[in-house]
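Go through this pair.

…
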Amino acid sequence: MPHPEMHRTSHIGWLRAAVLGANDGLISTSSLVVGVAAADPAPGAVLIAGMAGLVAGALSMAAGEYVSVSSQADTEGADIARERRELATEPEAEHAELAGIYRDRGLTPELADQVARQLAAHDALGSHSRDELGMHAATQARPIQAALASAAAFAVGAAPPVLLAAFWPFGALSSVITGSTLVLLAILGATAARTGGAPVAKGALRVTFWGAVAMGGTALVGRLFGAVV
């Protein structure tokens, strides 16, 4: 009796977009708020900067992810259309190509020929898409899903620094945002690593390190240019 198996590759489509969006939202918005706060403006300016960063970043992530994944989907669609034409006009050549793939994987010529014919009889285009082109349902390009996941994840990641800018006293705002962002980045990095089957400590450390670098750099810029202005 077959039993269901869950593989980590089934998460790859949404996980990449979600992790990238949340990381970018948290790091970029926190860095923006810390950088503006370091310039010592009016508290309202810090909140406006954070809100603008959240909205602009979410829309930018959605647009960029949609365009990128749409290009992948267009390429996949063009390859599938070409394969469909070749199956209609050169069925024997396509059969020989599929049988050759199975021979290269270790089947005998007779068995490879038999497997290729049976799979083609069941779903010729699906067999060629999977075994010749390397396309699988788990990694299929889904532009709208990727765009929505990126925008939502960015907004979720950007929300903590914006909320802190709205409600936390301005005097300690930079320190609180920096500390909370580093903790959240560590949690996010560890969660993403665990979901993807990677080492948890390594995933948490690399995300936290680059977040600290980003916030430190923008704080320095805000301090220098704020002093000049």
About this structure: The chain is about 85% helix and 0% strand. Residues 10-228 form one domain. The first helix runs from residue 12 to 38.
